[in-house]
Amino acid sequence: DGGITQSPKYLFRKEGQNVTLSCEQNLNHDAMYWYRQDPGQGLRLIYYSQIVNDFQKGDIAEGYSVSREKKESFPLTVTSAQKNPTAFYLCASSYGIGFDTQYFGPGTRLTVL
Amino acid sequence: EDKVVQSPLSLVVHEGDTVTLNCSYEVTNFRSLLWYKQEKKAPTFLFMLTSSGIEKKSGRLSSILDKKELSSILNITATQTGDSAIYLCAKAGSGNTGKLIFGQGTTLQVKP
User: Fold this and answer.
1) 3-state SS, residue B82
2) Nearest CA to CA, how far is B41 from chain A (Å)?
3) pLDDT mean values, one per 10 residues, chain B (112 residues)
4) Interface of chain A toward chain B, CB-CB under 8 angstroms
5) Which residue from B34, B42, B104 is facing A100, i.e. has the nearest CB?
6) Which residues neighbour A81 within 8 Å (Cβ) at sequence distance 6 or greater?
7) Is B43 an interface residue toward A (CB < 8 Å)?
8) pLDDT band at A1 (very low <50, low <70, confident <90, very high)
9) Closest by Cα among A96, A89, A64 to A79
10) pLDDT for B35
């Protein structure tokens, strides 16, 4: 079955720790995206990547980092510099440039203790 | 600032009712408008509307793009409890960045 997987489903972090959220897709999509969802604010773009070894900042990139070493993988690291990291994180992918429809993974809920 | 605004933010109806959800956007760099349904976790794709395809329908759900008013509506007829979800509207801009700009979402609750 093709799709997007995210792990872990739930993640708890102590203040001052970096954590990495996994996102994998087997849809052969070129583009991948990370969003943050907070209650009442919809989805906000953190980072996106249109091809391997290239990525761009989204609207709220501060305190986050990404890498895109493989086409199917786009991990997100939430660093200690992110002041309010508790949120629901969604990864998405699309065929790439010119294809607007994005397909989403099941999400990771991050809670800072 | 490029914005997408949805209304209402929340809505409670009873089974069998018809609902209309609204989405307005700015015209800057418009290429398409997308609707998603989010029940618990992953948003699932419903419709994409473009200047050349302004009306879509699937079962009890339908959506129309009004280019003049810079808005779109999502209609759900004969609502069921399974329609309870957050409905997200997103705009894709031209320029081939692939970025989507999302509205705040409308939370729909359908009571038995």
Assistant:
1) helix
2) 5
3) 90 98 88 93 93 89 93 97 97 80 96 96
4) 4, 31, 33, 35, 40-45, 48, 50, 56, 58, 90, 94, 96-107
5) B34
6) A62, A63
7) yes
8) low
9) A64
10) 97
Give me the amino acid identity at A76.
L
Tokens of B19: 């609902």
Q: What is the DSSP letter of B9?
A: S
Report the 10 Å Cβ neighbour count for A70. 11
3-state secondary structure of B83: helix
The single residue listed with the structure tokens 């031209």 is: B94
Provide, as residue numbers in chain B, all residues whose Cβ is less than 8 Å from the Cβ of A45. 99-100
Q: How would DSSP label each residue in B62-106?
A: EEEEETTTTEEEEEE-S--GGG-EEEEEEEEESSS---EEE---E
Inter-residue contact A3 to A102 (CB < 8 Å): no
Which helix (DSSP H) or strand (DSSP E) does residue B19 occupy? strand B19-25
Interface residue B48 vs chain A (CB under 8 A): yes
